[in-house]
Protein: Kinesin motor domain-containing protein
Amino acid sequence: MSHPRRPRRQDPYTWGDGDAVRRKKIINAPLIAARTEVIDRQSELVPIGKRALDVIIDEQTKSVIKDDNNIYQPNPDYVVNQALIDKVTAEKDKFEARVADAEAKVDAIYAQHNSAESTIRLGGKMVFVDLAGAEYQQDSKISATTQTPAERQEARQINTDLLALKEVMRAWSTRQKRVPYRSSPLTMVLRETFADARNCGAGMVVTVSPATMHHAATLNSLKYGSLMGTAR
Structure:
């Protein structure tokens, strides 16, 4: 059923349609390239940031020992390698600056097309992610014997990504100041969708089974999917 087009609002990217407001974004080749660069820079930052954090934690751990009362005290036999900490921190800062520069390019493209003289190009972007998950549950003796080392490694990575996504949704739903987007490449890629809550929407399709043998997997899937509803 078709409806007559509503008058354009003052915001050139907003249309009124009944009680709903549908927001549009300019999508063009430079913007797509700029967004891709942001994702690339963020992906580069993840291992660098993880190494910096690992070094700092390792140095801090070595700098203390437990006394006879099981209380942590400064370790007199170890000197913190501050030079190493400064080195990895500087490297992390460099890659964070590259992410900021890439994000600034995206903002600049939006600013350029926000002027009244710009040609309006309506469009959008959809991101589909197959979270896998349930088929990798290690709750049976069979899976442990039939999976190859590569499959077990893939399962561990999937579980890591799912846990990272769960923590992001939990932090997002409780309006925490810090959302751990950098915990995994998956959450880095989805950061734009979660961060821009006004112009982006996120949904989850949960596959479940009525079979009794799949009760645990179904329950876990429903609990996981409920986080998305809480976040929104």
Residues 1-125 form one domain.
